[in-house]
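assembly run, all chains below
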Amino acid sequence: MNFDFADQAPKMMMLLWGLVAFAVVVGGLLFVLDAVPSYFARRREAQLVAASASGAPLPRRTKPREGFFALFFLLPTVLLLLIGLVVPALRTTLLSFMDGGSQNWVGLDNYRWMFADDAIVRVLLNTLVWVTLVPLAATAIGLIYAVLVDKARLESVAKSLIFMPMAISFVGASIIWRFVYAYRGEDQDQIGLLNQIVVSLGGEPRQWLLDSPLNTLLLIVIMVWIQAGFAMVVLSAAIKSIPADIVEAARLDGVNPWQMFWQITMPSIRPALIVVVVTISIATLKVFDIVRTTTNGNYDTSVIANEMYNQAFRYGQNGQGSALAVFLFILVVPIVIFQIRNLRQQRREG
Amino acid sequence: MTTTTPPAAVGAQQNDGSTRASRVRKRLNSRTATVVAIVIAVVWTIPTFGLFISSFRPEAELKTTGWWTAFTDPQFTLKNYQDVLFGQSASSGQLANYFVNSLVITLPSVLFPLAFAALAAYALAWINFRGRDWLYIGIFALQIVPLQMALVPLLSFFSRGVSLGGITLMPAWNLDGAQNFAQVWFAHTCFALPFAVFLLHNFISQLPKDLMEAARVDGATHPKIFRTIVLPLVAPALAAFAIFQFLWVWNDLLVALIFAGGSEVTAPLTVRLAELAGTRGNEWQRLTAGAFVSIVVPLIVFLSLQRYFVRGLLAGSVKG
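ok done. output:
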């Protein structure tokens, strides 16, 4: 046994400190907010009593204004967002115009490097493949499954099966799938399911994760496996919220299931479809864990988030890492604008 | 379909034939539908199932035969779990230790954003002050900033502090050992806030206006309304966000890699597993059991609280 409770004591102390800090900050905030107004109320009462006793004119109300409360309610969030997100994001933008050690200005060199270096261009292309295939495949599978199991027996069990990968970490999912892709020599028994299937169909086992470009597709399978559950849940809820009388009217008109799907279901769930595609696209752009755990970005599988980590935290190239981060942000923006446009249009129609 | 029927019987037969045909087609349709659904369900479950079975197989078996042979030649053991959790050698995993780290990282990383975001969401929904809408839009917009944009400066903020023109605005944190957890909590809290405020605002702003006004007329102050009316009413939303954040933090790799580092004092399960997968990628007896150790807690949370999770998912994605 190598588990010593004494080793864990400092961590538990730290956890305790964290929880105490939490209680003090949140409790303190609420206490101050409670105490201050009641202090004002008491003072006003005292003033009123004094004024009525002496016959002097009543004092003006001194009640804390709404802004006072807003300030304290919002203080922690705004401070943390400034320190942890806004200022760092601005700094990253600046760093992307500086060299690796963040000493000298280099203008657009880091961006030029991004599009000139073959390895990085490959990374950008891989990201493009990811962000095209994952949302399409995950949404399509999620939609098909949602339609198929709708009102079926054991619907909730069937949905849980597809939804479960969402609870599994990307690292865990990567290990699960690496095991599916595992390779043993031709003369040995296969332990990976995929190679076993290939062998039993008369093929030769392959080292799936080493062959580009197939390996990128196999990594994409992992992401689709995780995200399809999300698509299924949101789309299933959208399907269920289609008004029953529309469905009934269509059925009375003798519409077959195929027409029902294209003419009733699809138009009704369009907003939900867009949300799903957008959300999965953004998640896919930032994918990091899967690539790192399966191939560590080798064999031509790297993507932007992975390369950003390598440049900034392994090679100490802050400039190039920051440029990749900024580029990632730039890629997210049009997707979000697309979604906002759609929402607006929807609101105008609805 | 009815072309071969004699003209005299067309009327009766056609009617009969079409209903029979449609019945057959319907049954075929529903049968294909069932088959397709089952195929998808199987493909989605088999990989996890295979890993689960494998984690109980002895090392020698696991490395030489496929997990499906366990059905014809069942041999099971708990040794993999014992090794990976408590093993002596440095290569064995020692996951029990990392499991504690994951817990220590996760609890405060859920509590802090939950409390701060609830306060902020209440203020943005029910307190009137100048610039409220702009502040909400600003926080909402921060959701789209990838956390990659913040990593490099935030790390240097922790290790070197902030100085502007030679004046130190904030000293370095100078943390060591278990104190490094504070960095991870801080980072997770900051990164979670935009989504947390957005999600909770969706719920809190939809509370009935009459209720709030009645409470105000009765002389209740904002903190009182927040504690006694709002919090109990939005408990499901708080639960939804807590589950989200729990799954996100427990399963996160990137933030932990950068702010917790790889040391056995602070690194969570995901970091350790990724390391084992990288350096000992063929030690399947460890990887299979290790993966399950990391999966089991989120899976329990997820399955027992799925209702809240789904509700949060729908509120967070569709209403937006």
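Chain B has two domains: 7-83, 90-317.

Chain B touches chain A through 121 residues (CB under 8 Å).

not gonna interpret more than that til we talk
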